[in-house]
């Protein structure tokens, strides 16, 4: 079984970090196919970068996804998620989507702690569209971006733990998601500082991917996430154009 | 790994049906511990029966759950779910909860098809409290109860398929949950009649249990689903009283 | 006219306290029939205890409610409320339900002050299901449980008054409910410290019961709160089993 | 005890009809003080008429309310309700407000049947601001206005019963409010045609007034419904100007 | 083109202030017809005053609106807005309505800063009925009323700028509306103190009026804002009675 | 004044059609700068195509927007809207955004009629994120896509008028938006068949652009739509990369 690990930003070090953190979670016979966005911002910390990343994710899937059994869209905020679900015939899991659904099993109200302040309103919208807005206690952003945290994780632990404690107490959160590719693996180090569950978004997404592989859902042939009607295009990567054009 | 398969109604045939349907899904080294409610209605098709079943579920857990690694609350509508999550130190998964979260990964709006008309308003409330109310296309109840369907599944297939088709077209659902212990295993027989995914609630719950076993979350020590403060009680099964009294 | 005063926890002192506080409010020809739960936690301050109490309330009604003209479910949080409404042929009023509806007549946004922190998320869900979530300014829980307040009310007055003032100012509440059986009669002593209405939940529930007695509504014969279809059961108190089985 | 029965439209026959229907419900020692709006539309069936009626209700209160113990704003849709609550020192009850709160005790989802199609969107807004939007199954308007129904009630019974049945079945309503002053007393004649409770809005409002008289709430001295700060005015009835100017 | 500048309070100085501020924004060939309410409170800072102002606005329109091409209801909170839209055949724009829609184009979440604390809950309701409740970051009221600010604007600038900064930082607002006729023209003086857009409600309303004049919408002949059915009335200004009676 | 007319699909005939329809609406001294997406689907009728179009819109702005005074994102559904608002220093108006805000001024509940069934769920999400979900009566999609309608508008008139009438009557809409670039100019031809306003989305967007030009808002320097922090990128058009990198 092959899993497309799709990092839609353009920093391959982040892709590699995730592959490293995820390796011990891979069952036998399962392979990660790590892919980094071909174009776009180094890190995604704005609506502009996220919009470009949506296209990059689709292209990456078109280029590298053909023989994969599942797609893991591994950027917290999930740029292009619903389009990928529409386009792909295999299960597509988003990191933020999976993390929020995992948190919803553990508590009535969860919080998200992540890096980069612009993600606050962007994630609030994401959770609202998911329908889980009433179960979101708060989004707490810390000043360093996910990318900066990834470069110096040791000094981020105390900061993240403090943000988690603040939202647990102030907002009554019963679980906290550490959101972001750059925070891969840090939840285990933050957990000892907290008495509620701390969820690693990278691992939560992976668990959802593995669950989908074990019990693959039927691809809808009608409805809003069915394959779109074929359409001609221009200026796209050949592989992506072919996917749009297939009947 | 032992999974408490907790059927909170008092019909052991339904427990057995579920155990039979779930057996092929059990990984090596995993055992089901099937338990049926000690008291309550034969089937749960009213608020009265569901309220009693909440208590029965807690008692069944207290009696039989001590050496289990996870609890599967296997009644669609999940009576006692949040109390079990509070009380137990191991992961607790509800059948309706897991089914709705599974459906939410597949489509923007899903429907539930189940037996017994009183479940309509009861499930609408359940989904609202889950926060997924905006993603629920409709609840379509068919006249036979889940129990009646379990006794004569063959004649129910056409009825269920029709109900699924109706809600897919009329309400724009992109996936349908066949909800109810009595409908265990029928989704596979209904699926060929539909072009959107049909989810078996019994299997969806099991997948969530297995996922929780692979990646067991930390039990919260504070917040709304932490273990409750110890309290004296009277008139309860000894095992349940002991759980309430532990510090 | 007989009113079943149904305390679903198992502490008869709380039942007696409520009967004492309510006595002066009883019109001529009206009798209280006080009943305490036969089984369950001493006090209800967790989801576990509330779930058990739902069953205890149904049994208490089945045992003692047969010649009553109304049921007063006298535990703030109303465990088993909708099931009781479904099962009983006479009006059933919950203490939290009545208090919230009373507050809604006095102000656009009300707060609840109660004892026991676990009630925060439990009551938020209750008010949401009632549909009044947008009119709830805040739930302010004080550290002692309702039971502890009942044992030493004098020292609780200042604490409660302070909690009321905080939510009035911080959250813009226009009325405050003092919620909980253990707080029976304290609103009158807290009111002088506040310039907005302070509602005694025990008395508010009683007023609603008396109103229902004066103008008894028709029992619905269809819809979600009609009597449930008859069903066999096992292991229940004989009286409750008989109610479930009646046609 | 004197109750200001305030009909804010300008048709005194409707006021008289309500007084007649309400007379048997008056406890000893309680007097109705019926008042009809001095200015405005004959009947209220538009936003324009309702807006004018809000002012008329305030003036009628200022002119006739000084020695009353409660105010009954007896027009379904409650023009001027919150302003009256703010201005008056005695309890103010609106007919639609009381009816919706009464229905909310009987069922999870209620419907409103009333005359005059423009009331559909007007009442939907009213119920939304009350916070009960999620519990409203539907508003079903029949073609004749409340005024026309009042003039020929006999021929309206079948029409109203049919509208009630439609919304009970199509929308799953568990109770129906017959809304409108002109429909006073008709619920008792419609009830036999239905198996769910049919609520007379005129009587439901009266019950709430009587409840408020028995247990009069404190007038808030702060918050959104406290007496407004004194303000000079021009062109108003002397009595209303005096109320605005009082400190 | 003539624009009815309708100030529904009774202080003509405020009308004059707005006319002065708006003059430079008038295109050639466009005339303001300033009108002040004939009756009601000097300033509108309560539900009582707002309710009366709704009637005053309708009368002012009936008296002075006949040859106007658009109506500008120039009181933040828009008393009588929907009734005016229903009654008038020309476009009607409310100051708060237009300001909120303008803010919604600039940011995901906006705040309102205005004078007079009672406006807090009144405006929250207004924005909720508009449907924009989820995009309202906060309403921040400052102690002086709009009227007091109008009399001494210089000393209000610092206060208003501070309130804007507070809500920008604490609530994450991306734009702030300075709401109120009395604050006309102050946004330009507050803007330099802030790094997000500060919207003058008086000017925002005017822009919407001018847009409506350039592209006048069709008056609906059915639906909730169509002209109401003709109705007799009593006690109204002759012009208003005539509008109600026209077929 | 120069307006970037940004068509993010790749069919220049649609761009030309809009330019032709908009020409008579251009004031003196205002120029349209029509641009068509460089890459992507011919028409946008899926999430996949819309996601790609978001990137295409950003690139088109970067390439051609530098000396424009406003941006008109002229595709109903507004792919990339918030990212463009973030990135650009001049006002950005989306066609669906402007149409919905225009409709909200005319009625309490509006409907959208458009071509291409996949737009149903996509637009429902769009309107929800706008916050106007409660004011949306319905989205009615007709079978031909906007592109097909553009090619043969004559035969579409009856179909569109019928869809408008259906939603007006069935859903109580008080105004209808004809949504889509391909439907440019058809509202005027559909209007005579309806008695409620029919809004041309192309013209409604243009009016909002002109209003923004007359009264240009301040670009926020903080908050969620401020210019994003500079970031390096790879693989983008040089002009877009420069915009991302600017400090």
UniProtKB/TrEMBL annotation, chains A, B, C, D, E, F:
Coiled coil, from the record: none
- Sorted alphabetically, which Pfam families does this protein's record hold? Asp_Glu_race
In terms of InterPro entries, this protein maps to:
Asp/Glu/hydantoin_racemase, Hydantoin_racemase-like, Iso_Racemase_Enz_sf
Q: Could you tell me what this protein is called?
A: Asp/Glu racemase
In its UniProt entry, the species of origin is given as Bosea vaviloviae
Q: Which GO terms describe its molecular function?
A: amino-acid racemase activity
Phylogenetic placement of the source organism: Bacteria, Pseudomonadati, Pseudomonadota, Alphaproteobacteria, Hyphomicrobiales
**Recorded family membership:** Belongs to the HyuE racemase family.
């Amino acid at each position: 079984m092959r899993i497309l690990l799709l990092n839609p930003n353009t920093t391959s070090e982040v892709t590699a970090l995730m592959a490293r953190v995820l390796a011990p979670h891979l069952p036998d016979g399962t392979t990660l196919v790590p892919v980094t966005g071909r174009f776009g911002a180094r890190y995604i910390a704005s609506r502009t970068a996220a919009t470009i990343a949506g296209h990059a994710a689709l292209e990456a899937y078109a280029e590298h996804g053909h023989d994969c059994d599942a797609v893991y869209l591994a950027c917290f905020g999930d740029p292009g998620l619903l389009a990928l679900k529409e386009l792909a015939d295999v299960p597509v899991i988003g990191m933020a989507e999976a993390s929020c659904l995992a948190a919803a099993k553990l508590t009535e109200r969860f919080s998200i702690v992540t890096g980069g302040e612009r993600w606050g309103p962007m994630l609030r919208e994401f959770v609202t569209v998911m329908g889980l807005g009433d179960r979101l206690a708060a989004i707490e952003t810390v000043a360093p971006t996910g990318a900066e945290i990834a470069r110096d994780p040791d000094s981020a632990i105390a900061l993240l733990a403090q943000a988690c404690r603040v939202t647990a107490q102030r907002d009554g959160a019963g679980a906290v998601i550490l959101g972001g590719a750059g925070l891969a693996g840090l939840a285990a180090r933050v957990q000892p500082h907290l008495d509620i569950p701390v969820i690693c978004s990278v691992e939560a997404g992976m668990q959802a991917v593995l669950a989908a592989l074990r019990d693959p859902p039927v691809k809808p042939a009608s409805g809003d996430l069915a394959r779109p009607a074929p359409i001609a295009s221009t200026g796209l990567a050949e592989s992506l154009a072919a996917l749009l054009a297939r009947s």
